[in-house]
Amino acid sequence: MPMDFESKMNMVPNPERGVVNHESRVYGSSFKGIPLEVFGPTDGPTDILLMAAMHGDEGESTVVLSEALRSIRPSDMKHPVILSVNPDGILRGTRCNARGVDLNRNWPTANWSPGTVHYRGHGQELREIELSAGSSAASEPETNSLLALVQRLQPRAIVSLHAPLGCVEDPEVKPLARWIANRVGLPLVPDVGYLTPGSFGTWSAEQGINIITWELPLEPISDLIASHAPVLRRLITGERLPETL
Ligand SMILES: [Zn+2]
Question: pTM of the entire structure?
């Protein structure tokens, strides 16, 4: 297809994709002291902010987003990218951060509540593993730092990658979510089927930001890269996106 050929002409050649060469800015620090980094433009307002791995046991989201980022020349980057919102969780292989807090339940929303949150582990049937929503809303450094970054970047839309539910979630079913779902062949849903008080999605919606939760399907990582990285690439470069987000 001519358009795909044109895109490939501008991509970083394979031998040069080994490292992330894009400029980054440290926007905070994890509880364990790991720098929280955002790549690309760091001044707002921006149309789209892309991020991965709010849950540390969903590392495939970081790999797929990184593959897309490393294929893009730094000069072609239009929208900022966070490869790991929860680096302590990634290092430990845990859904939560190093303090046992599910960062996707720690946001200062109208419905945030303290106490235990439950989730279903990989390969398990029941949502019986316990984590915390935090000692207070935005109690965690990862939450606080991201909150300040979002306020600085003023994104119109945020695309947050998770796994492995295999759907694109947008409560308002806006054009950008429809565009993503169509291109990656995933169902577009208004919610994931259970309550998520204190979630990043709820907080973003309360700020008037168009929030899209992109749940990668349970597939080999090579298949995820083949089908999802090209769409992420277009979101990062802003190349032929829908007119309305
Ligand atoms: Zn997740």
Answer: 0.95
